[in-house]
Every structure is written in C-alpha cells, then in structure tokens.
Amino acid sequence: MNAGREELLAVDEIGQIIADSVIQYFASEDHQQIINKLKESGLKMETEASETATTSQKLDGKSFVVSGVFSHYSRDEIKALIEKNGGKNVGSISSKTDFLLAGENMGPSKKEKAEKLNIPIISEEDFEKMIR
pLDDT tens digits, residue range 36-66? Predict the structure, then answer.
C-alpha cells in the first residue's frame, strides 16, 4: 500500500501501467477503508517468511508454465513447489519459458506453442524427479 512507483517497478513483471494503477488504487480513501475493514475482520495481509522460503535451489533460474489437471497435486500446490524450489511460474509460453508442466486435459494451444518453440513438455512425474 505504501510502495512508491520505483519500488513497484522493481517488482518482477510490474511495468509502468500496473505500477500507476496500484498507486491510484491505494490513493482512494474508499479502497483504504475496505482494506482496513478486512484487516479488522482478521484477514492476514502479510505472509510469514517460512511460507515463502525456498527449500532448495533445484529449479533456480527455471521458468514453468503449468497447464492441465494433475493426479497428486492441485495446480496451486505445484506452483508453490516450483517457487519453494527456486523456480518461477509464468502464465504464458514464450521463448523464455524453460518447461511446460503438462497434466491431463492440457490446453492444446499451449502444447502446440511449446512444441513450436522447442520447449520441453514434462509430466507430473518428471517434475517430481526434478525436485527430489
């Protein structure tokens, strides 16, 4: 809420438009009142360091797109495992993506784009081996 434009721009994947939008949002007294009501109602606004701490660096510098349904984990659990092991979640496939983690019923367009860009498509089991 109190971050300045430069602080917001330093955050990965936040550009000028989003930074300005965030500042404008928190400048609104109505929005500040809503946030204060949420805090007073017990909504936790900060995470504990242990919740975001990495457990390993096995995926350090690697970016993943997660698509489909998985048998052992929810998508949110897989994304958390990626981050806890030093990796990064990205929403769409680009030439900078390292892996497409594919579950059942994965979107065909993501698979097609990954194949076109020669991005490795890995399974849930492949992913588990990477973080062991």
Answer: 999 899 998 876 655 556 678 999 999 999 9
Pull the structure tokens for residue 130.
């990477």
Predicted pLDDT at 101? 97
d(CA 71, CA 10): 37
pLDDT tens for each residue of 83-113: 999 999 998 899 999 999 999 999 899 999 9
Residue 50, classified by CB atoms within 10 Å of its CB into exposed (0-12), middle (13-18) or buried (19+), is: exposed
pLDDT of 116 above 90: yes
Q: Alpha-carbon Rg of the chain, whole angstroms?
A: 18
Antiparallel, parallel or unpaired: β 63-67 and 99-102: parallel
Instruction: Work out whether the CA dihedral 12, 18, 24, 28 comes out positive or negative.
Output: negative
Q: Token pair of 97, please?
A: 């993506």
Instruction: Transcribe 5-70 into DSSP letters.
Output: HHHHHTSTT--HHHHHHHHHHHH-HHHHHHHHHHHHTT---S--HHHH--S--TTTT-EEEEESB-
